[in-house]
Structure to design on (160 residues):
């Protein structure tokens, strides 16, 4: 019976889509780039060009997003990087790029964003600035992942 368990475990381990931790950081970088880029793209596509002081509002959204990155998202992205570096397995499952709470938070945020956009509770011309505001720190955070993917040993040294 014990041999069967070992064989089953080995069989299931071969099915696990495991990748090195360094590559997992690059996967996270691509996902964060996509999410940030998608929000920025949607935000800009919802803009109305005839709005008064459009450039001021866009600049304000970017500056707000930059501040949000500095005070919130830079800490979140570093926590994710350190969590990946501290994973026990040297070849963790590709789905461990996020923990379950992060997957849950993403599902809620995506659903909320789609609901706001589809119902137009908030007019799209205003919602667009929120998308730009949120897309900016997501996109900037991706660069931190790229950095620690390239300079992986620096992430290992930060290990806690």
């Amino acid at each position: 019976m014990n041999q069967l368990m070992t064989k089953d475990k080995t069989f299931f381990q071969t099915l696990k889509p495991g990748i090195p931790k360094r590559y997992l950081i690059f996967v996270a970088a691509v996902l964060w780039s996509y999410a940030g880029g998608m929000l920025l793209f949607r935000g800009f596509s919802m803009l109305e060009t005839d709005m008064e002081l459009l450039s001021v509002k866009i600049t304000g959204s970017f500056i707000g997003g930059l501040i949000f990155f500095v005070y919130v998202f830079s800490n979140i992205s570093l926590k994710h990087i350190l969590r990946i570096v501290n994973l026990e397995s040297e070849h963790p499952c590709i789905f461990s790029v996020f923990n379950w709470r992060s997957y849950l938070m993403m599902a809620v945020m995506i659903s909320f964003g789609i609901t706001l956009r589809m119902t137009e509770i908030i007019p799209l011309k205003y919602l667009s600035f929120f998308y730009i505001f949120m897309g900016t720190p997501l996109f900037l955070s991706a660069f931190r992942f790229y950095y620690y993917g390239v300079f992986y040993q620096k992430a290992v040294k930060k290990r806690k």
Summary: The chain has six helices and no strands. The CA atoms of residues 53 and 155 lie 42 Å apart.
